[in-house]
Amino acid sequence: MTATTPTRKLTYADYVKIPNDGRRHEILDGVHFINGQRHDLVGEESLLNPAPSTYHQIVSSRLLQQLLMQIQLPSLGFVLHAPCDVQLSGDRIVQPDIVVVLNQRKSIITPTKIKGPPNLVVEILSPSSEETDCVQKREIYQSAGVEEYWIVDLLEHTVDQLVLRDGIYQSQPESDVRQLTILEGVKIFLNDIW
Hints:
Blueprint: H1 12-15, E1 25-28, E2 31-34, E3 37-38, H2 54-72, E4 77-81, E5 86-89, E6 92-94, E7 98-102, E8 114-115, E9 120-124, H3 130-144, E10 148-153, E11 158-165, E12 168-171, E13 177-179, E14 187-189
Parallel strand pairs: 5-8, 9-10
Antiparallel strand pairs: 1-2, 2-3, 4-7, 5-6, 7-9, 10-11, 11-12, 13-14
């Protein structure tokens, strides 16, 4: 197989042409990523990315449940989980593990995607996505104005809570309870998600 170099940046128009094959497709700065890995290969080698681990899915479900109970059920906003397209710009389309859009921004939710920065984005690390989530997506979410970005580390049992202040993400002190800065009174008990 040979690697191909894109001659142009991909956009949302290219993204919607990607077949739904059960994998997480994203376009980051015009480049196609599959399950957190840059996709330059064509043919069989492009099919090697597995689904998330069962532990990844368990932690995601437990975190989702806490957010649903405290945000969506009391009608304070919307909590969505992957796969859910989030278009941050023409060449930045992501599928975070969990997305929160509060009522004040609900107009960004369209029938096919979220168009604009959500209030909170959660990414759960996997071996194939760690570098992308911690470096590239951090910069993308920061520059797009996502108010809070959580990076969940399954191996270390930590959540890096990044809060946007003056256009720069700042990590919050480690704790077993995470208090959302985007919505007063919402607390996530981390011991209940591991």
